[in-house]
Structures are given as structure tokens and as C-alpha cells.
Write a structure and sequence with these properties.
FAD/NAD(P)-binding domain; 5-stranded parallel beta sheet; alpha/beta; single chain
């Protein structure tokens, strides 16, 4: 019997599990490796902070998902990959061999190696750590500092400010907020931040964190009582020492088929994958979602030896929806940007439809708002 190991319950692997539930692979043992027995959906986390959703609405119960796919859940996480030996060391020290392994473990937040960050900031990955944000940020204390001016940082700053009413500062080392957004979206977001009283500092690189104080590279110090770390992505530490090929940033190198060029039994999708073909694939969940059906088909082909592998082609763009925390949202699409309650309802409907699909698979009851 062959063994398929799915490392991480990310967006793409949800589709793999769904496909296995519909059409099991004969003579294949499937193992789902996760860190814990619950997975939170990052797209609804800001809404939970704002009070839009109950925790159950953004949670996948992994035991149920694994059971539906006739898979075994290993909830201690992955500690090391030994690609040449086809072995994965689990978090509890056991070693798991595999015939085919697929990784969908996301990325890590950049900059956590800076002095004081691990001690004095709330780092939001793994996502379970994010559950501490609301309790800490809700204390009637002083300034709230959000580090990172991407879409996640903007959403968190707005949702935390709406929920806590604390003085909030959004800090970004670059000049664009949100990073990579169109001019219209950046202009709208800047106006919204100003309207809501969220102070925005761009071109401000952080040097270190100390208790109650953030020191910039310029030497300036900024006071805070709660610091939320929502920076850009860096590669997981699992791949560089594994013996498998990695890209220039340390992500697991993959061809357009999502397969490793050095170890054909390895696959990756989502933020942890580094495409070496030259096609541009941003680190965003909407791309992982589109990779899911391709990954599922290619894992099946690799295990059965039947059929050619399908290439994944990234979509040219996507609809970005950011929760503003006050019952409104910002939508950005093809250079245009809109803000209002209708955008919030659109985001809410998309998120609920995605969650309902896989919560049903897990045997969960979809919670009403």
C-alpha cells in the first residue's frame, strides 16, 4: 500500500481532501499532518476581531475532514523533512515515511528575527496565536501598534480600532499601503484610515521592540502597549535543510505542475510553494484555492501512474475584499476601488460559502450569525 502525506490543512489541501472523500484512491493510505486539531480561516479572522463572526464560523475541525477523506490525522505538526529518505519527522519525534508528500503550510511572517519581536509582539502565525490578539488589545490601555502595511495589516488595524477604540498606529517600512494595491485602492485606504483615526506611518523601518516601545532604524521611539505583527511573508524553515530544491527565497521549488524539480514525489501549493517557471504567483489565499483542483488531479496521477500532470496557470488578478471593521468593506478590482456596506455583504457571502462547503464535509453544523 502506498502512503500519501498531506502536510498542512491549507486551502489547496481542503480541495484534495474533498476529492478523496468523493473518490478514494484504492490501496493508498492518506495522512493529514497538522499543528493541532483545528484550522482557522484567515479570511474571516479580522471579522471575528470586529465582532462579525463567532469563532465556530471560521473554524475547520480537522478530525472530521480527515475522517471524510478516510485519512488519518497527525496533529503534532512537521518538524523536519528528509527528502532523499522520503521521511517526515513529526513534532512528537516520530518519523513518517511516504511515497508522495504534498505541502500546504503557508508562510511565516517576515522580520520576527528582529530583537524583541518574539518577546513583545503578538505574531499571528500559526493562526491559533491570533486568538490572543483580541483579549490583549481589548484591555483599556494605551496605543495599539500594527506592524505591516499589507492587506492583512490594514484589515487588522481597522478591525482592532473599531472593536477597541484604542489609539492605533499602522507602521509600514515601504511607501505603499496596502502593498501592491492599485493607486485607487491606496488612495481610498489612506482616506479611510485617516477618517477612522488610524495613524499611518510609511517609510518607517523597525529596528527592535522593547517593553512598551518600538525603536525605528532612524532612532525614533514609538510607544505602544500592544504590538500586533502582520508583516509580509518569508519561507517556512522546513525546506532549506531538507535536501529538496528551494527557490531564491527558500520556498519549496515547484514547476507549474506543483511538483518538485528535484524530488518528483514532492508537491507544494499555496504560500509555501516557489514557482521556478517565471510565472508570477502572489502569496494570497485566492491563488491557493485555484491550485487545489490541479494539485488534487496531479497527486492522483502521481500515485496511480495514470494520466499526465496538469499545469497550474495563475489568474491575472483577483477581487480583493478588506473588512473595515464597522460593517463596511473595501473592494479592489482591476484598478478600481469601492467602499461600503455592499462590499461587506459581498465579502461575507463569499467567506460563508467557502466555509460552508468544507464544514459540511467535516460534518460540522454551520453556525448562524
Amino acid at each position: 500500500m502506498k502512503r500519501l502525506v498531506l502536510v498542512g490543512p491549507g486551502h489547496a489541501h481542503l480541495y484534495v481532501l474533498e476529492a478523496l472523500a468523493r473518490a478514494p484512491l484504492p490501496d493508498v493510505e492518506t495522512v493529514l499532518v497538522s499543528l493541532g486539531t483545528r484550522q482557522l480561516y484567515s479570511g474571516m479572522l479580522p471579522g471575528w476581531i470586529a465582532g462579525d463572526h463567532a469563532l465556530e464560523q471560521l473554524s475547520f475541525e480537522l478530525e472530521g475532514l480527515a475522517r471524510a477523506a478516510k485519512a488519518r490525522l497527525e496533529p503534532s505538526g512537521a518538524l523536519a523533512l528528509r527528502a532523499d529518505q522520503r521521511e517526515l519527522q513529526l513534532g512528537d519525534g516520530r518519523v513518517l515515511g511516504y511515497d508522495v508528500a504534498s505541502f500546504d503550510i503557508g508562510s511565516l511572517p517576515a522580520g520576527t528575527e528582529l530583537p524583541g519581536v518574539k518577546e513583545h509582539a503578538l505574531v499571528l502565525k500559526p493562526l491559533e496565536r491570533a486568538l490572543a490578539v483580541l483579549s490583549e488589545a481589548s484591555q483599556p490601555l494605551g496605543p495599539l501598534l500594527v506592524v505591516g502595511g499589507g492587506a492583512a495589516g490594514v484589515e487588522l488595524a481597522l478591525c482592532l480600532q473599531a472593536r477597541t477604540r484604542r489609539p492605533t498606529l499602522l507602521l509600514e517600512r515601504g511607501e505603499e499601503v496596502p502593498r501592491g494595491a492599485s493607486r485607487a485602492a491606496r488612495r481610498l485606504i489612506r482616506g479611510l484610515l485617516a477618517q477612522r483615526g488610524v495613524e499611518l506611518r510609511t517609510g518607517a523601518a523597525l529596528a527592535s521592540l522593547e517593553p512598551g516601545s518600538a525603536r525605528l532604524e532612524s532612532g525614533e521611539s514609538l510607544p505602544f502597549t500592544t504590538c500586533v505583527w502582520a508583516t509580509g511573508a518569508r519561507a517556512p524553515e522546513l525546506f532549506a535543510p531538507s535536501g529538496a530544491a528551494v527557490d531564491a527565497q527558500g520556498y519549496l521549488a515547484v514547476e507549474d505542475t506543483l511538483r518538485s524539480p528535484s524530488h518528483p514525489e514532492l508537491f507544494a501549493a499555496g504560500d509555501c510553494a516557489g514557482f521556478i517557471s517565471g510565472q508570477r504567483v502572489p502569496k494570497a489565499g485566492v491563488y491557493a484555492v485555484r491550485q487545489g483542483p490541479v494539485l488534487s488531479a496531479n497527486l492522483r496521477a502521481a500515485l496511480t501512474g495514470e494520466g499526465a500532470l496538469r499545469p497550474y496557470h495563475a489568474q491575472a488578478g483577483f477581487l480583493s475584499l478588506m473588512n473595515a471593521g464597522d460593517g463596511t468593506a473595501v473592494a479592489a478590482w482591476k484598478g478600481l476601488a469601492f467602499h461600503g456596506r455592499a462590499m461587506w455583504h459581498l465579502k461575507d457571502a463569499i467567506d460563508r460559502r467557502f466555509m460552508a462547503r468544507f464544514q459540511r464535509l467535516a460534518g460540522q453544523r454551520s453556525e448562524a450569525r
